[in-house]
Amino acid sequence: MRHYTKATFNVTESVGFQLVRARNLIIAEMDGALKEFDISSQQMGILLVLRRKLATTPFEMSKMLGMDTGLMTRMLDKLEAKGLLVRSRDQQDRRVVNLSLTKDGTAVADQVPEVAVEVLNARLKAFTKDEVAELRRLLHKFAGD
């Protein structure tokens, strides 16, 4: 089914525009709330993925978080400079770089979910529980999950 035509397309009402706008709102609010930890929302994602052991290499992390490898390298450099993670060569395959949280990185990763919860709850305060479930379902469908 075609939902748009050239004649009816309105950029500010398009799904793409609205998704980007929603993403930008959440990022700005999350970045503001994370200032006390001196990390960005993108860096928060890396810390949380490492804490939950969902990815352990820069490549896996790039795929999971949808970041290109250049941006991932810059994010990892910043987190490493802050003492929140370390890179190490894999013992079996020296070409592979493994990522792990430091003690400080683990402490931050354990605290930031509270911040994320507050930011997301504030953004979703006008939604019912069913509406949030439907929004999540639709986003999964849109992403092809």
Automatic annotation (TrEMBL):
Molecular function terms from GO: DNA binding; DNA-binding transcription factor activity
Keyword flag Transcription regulation: yes
InterPro entries: HTH_MarR-typ, WH-like_DNA-bd_sf, WH_DNA-bd_sf
Record keywords: DNA-binding, Transcription, Transcription regulation
SMART domains linked: HTH_MARR (SM00347)
HTH marR-type domain ranges (all copies): 1-144
Pfam (any one): MarR
Protein name in UniProt: MarR family transcriptional regulator
Organism: Trinickia symbiotica
